[in-house]
Design brief:
The protein is α/β, with parallel strands linked by helices and 507 residues long. It has helices at residues 11-19, 37-44, 63-72, 90-98, 111-149, 152-162, 184-190, 222-238, 256-273, 292-308, 311-326, 331-352, 374-394, 397-411, 418-424, 429-440, 444-462, 467-473, 479-490, 494-506, and strands spanning 2-7, 28-34, 51-55, 80-85, 103-106, 169-176, 197-202, 208-213, 243-251, 277-280. The protein has a five-stranded parallel sheet. The protein has a five-stranded mixed sheet with strand order 7-8-6-9-10. The mean pLDDT is 82.
Length: 507
């Protein structure tokens, strides 16, 4: 359906336009009916109609002035327009001819004549739409050629098809909605009401592309960026999960290949993050140097979260790892190393839980994860692995008990209580307390003290740390309590132990 705007200051005429004309039967929809040219211009700043019927004699702004302003606007100059008047005016007829107005109708309107006119206009608009579609396809082809050749001839063809001044400042935009690219008409609606020029293309990467340029060529023109922000906001509103990539700027599309490379790099990095958003080339951070320690700590956090089947922790750790990878100089290489580390850890935990040692599990991380939505896939894989490991562990609580003991052995310096340990390994606290003593020979608290005091002995002999510092490092809330526990297990105080042992060694 083609959208129609009627401009007439007579209320009964507006009512007639609404009720007398069978718009839909002829391929049209009456979307707006306003009473003067000023109101019509304000409306068209928001959305562009396909067809305008306007009266001549109106208050505030008459029909002739309305048409003048439309013809001065690059965005409105090609709207199909029909003049409607209650009497013949030679100057109006001349004006219509000079401005290539399609029709000049006299009141009173006759229903059959209007319907016949609508049929004629629909055929004309269909032909124009078909021609524009061909032009759009040609624009995409010329755009692809400009990216490939970056020749002056290709650039000149691009400028001509866009009707863009040779020194206009422009930016490229790529839009990834995660599905089929939006239609040209959808983009045109998004770009409605802007001062900047805009051309729609299908990018070589299969995404929707926009070429946006300023019509003011005497300066950098902040209006261009303002329009681009409006376009990005409208796109995000229409497709909330889309990602929008905005290149740097250039004059006359002279560096169009460089701009396109910027967009592809922005997209490549954003895929690792797995988050929709608006990405400006100027806001892209300088890639960080890849450090294995930083990567390993994030991969270990994700591995631990998967082993504990902690959904929230898995999602958070996967996001942190993906964010780190995206910020490195070579994300693909960083991803390969992290995947290898993570996959090995998951497989060890899977086999330890009783998983099939011969046939690999169906959640094995594959090569495709390096190039798609990494955050989403890491999360999905770890959740699936965690679920299978939990199912296996539920069949063998003995295995989880051994894991709990190993966890205490590795984390005895931390503030750890039996109920927290039971919750972490999904065991009943009473059962865990009983079985913990059976396996280790000590109750939970005594085992923690035993490990801590064993470490305290090493620190007393091998470092110059004060007793208070050692107590704090080993998780004791006070030096006095640490001293009493130490003495109960060694029969001497920490200070005496240090003096006696060093004296014996020296002697």
């Amino acid at each position: 359906m083609y959208k129609v705007l009627v401009v007439d200051d007579e209320p009964f005429m507006l009512e007639g336009w609404r009720t007398m004309v069978d718009w839909e039967a002829h391929g049209f929809q009456l979307c707006w009916a306003v009473s003067d040219g000023k109101e019509a211009m304000e409306m068209m700043e928001q959305e562009v109609p396909d067809l305008v019927f306007t009266d001549l004699q109106m208050p505030v702004m008459d029909g002739l002035e309305l048409i003048r302003q439309m013809k001065r606007s690059h965005r409105l100059e090609n709207i199909t327009t029909v003049i409607v008047s209650g009497y013949s005016r030679f100057d109006a007829a001349q004006f219509a001819i000079r401005h290539q107005i399609e029709q000049y109708l006299l009141k009173p309107l006759i229903e059959e004549e209007i319907h016949e006119l609508l049929n004629t206009l629909r055929i004309m608009l269909d032909q124009r739409k078909s021609a524009e579609s061909l032009a759009s396809e040609k624009l995409s082809a010329v755009f692809a050629r400009a990216l490939q050749e970056e020749s002056e001839e290709a650039r000149a063809s691009l400028l001509q098809l866009l009707d863009c001044p040779p020194d206009a400042i422009g930016r490229l935009i790529l839009v990834d909605t995660g599905k089929a690219a939006p239609a040209k008409e959808e983009f045109e609606a998004i770009a409605a009401g802007l001062l900047s020029g805009c051309g729609c293309v299908e990018d070589t990467a299969g995404l929707a592309g926009l070429l946006v340029w300023s019509r003011q060529t005497d300066s950098a023109d902040a209006g261009l960026d303002s329009d681009i922000r409006r376009i990005a906001a409208r796109l995000a509103g229409e497709w909330p999960l889309c990602s929008i990539y905005i290149s740097g700027s250039t004059r006359g599309w002279k560096q169009i290949r460089q701009l396109h490379k910027q967009l592809l790099e922005l997209r490549r990095r954003s895929l690792y993050k797995g988050q929709p958003g608006i990405y400006w080339h100027e806001q892209a951070l300088e890639p960080a140097h890849w450090r294995w320690g930083d990567a390993a700590s994030r991969a270990s956090a994700l591995l631990m979260a998967a082993e504990c089947n902690d959904i929230a922790a898995i999602e958070s750790a996967a996001g942190a790892l993906a964010e780190f990878i995206a910020g490195t100089a070579e994300p693909a290489d960083s991803m390969a190393a992290c995947l290898s580390y993570l996959q090995g850890g998951l497989l060890r935990s899977y086999h330890k839980a009783g998983g099939d040692p011969v046939h690999p599990p169906d959640w094995m991380l594959t090569e495709y994860a390096r190039h798609a939505n990494v955050r989403e896939q890491l999360t999905e894989v770890c959740l699936k692995a965690a679920g299978q490991m939990e199912e296996l562990n539920n069949k063998r609580p003995e295995g989880r008990l051994q894991d709990a003991v190993a966890y205490v052995t590795a984390h005895y310096r931390e503030k750890l209580q039996l109920k927290d340990l039971a919750e972490l390994f999904r065991l009943n606290p009473v059962y865990l307390g009983q079985q913990f003593k059976r396996v280790t020979g000590y109750c939970f608290n005594d085992y923690m003290h035993l490990l801590r005091i064993k470490e305290a002995k090493k620190l007393l002999l091998r470092t110059d740390l004060k007793v208070s510092a050692i107590a704090s490092e080993l998780g004791y809330h006070s030096t006095e309590y640490f001293g009493s526990v130490f003495k109960s297990l060694t029969k001497v105080s920490p200070s005496a132990y240090k003096s006696n042992q060093k004296g014996d060694w020296l002697g």
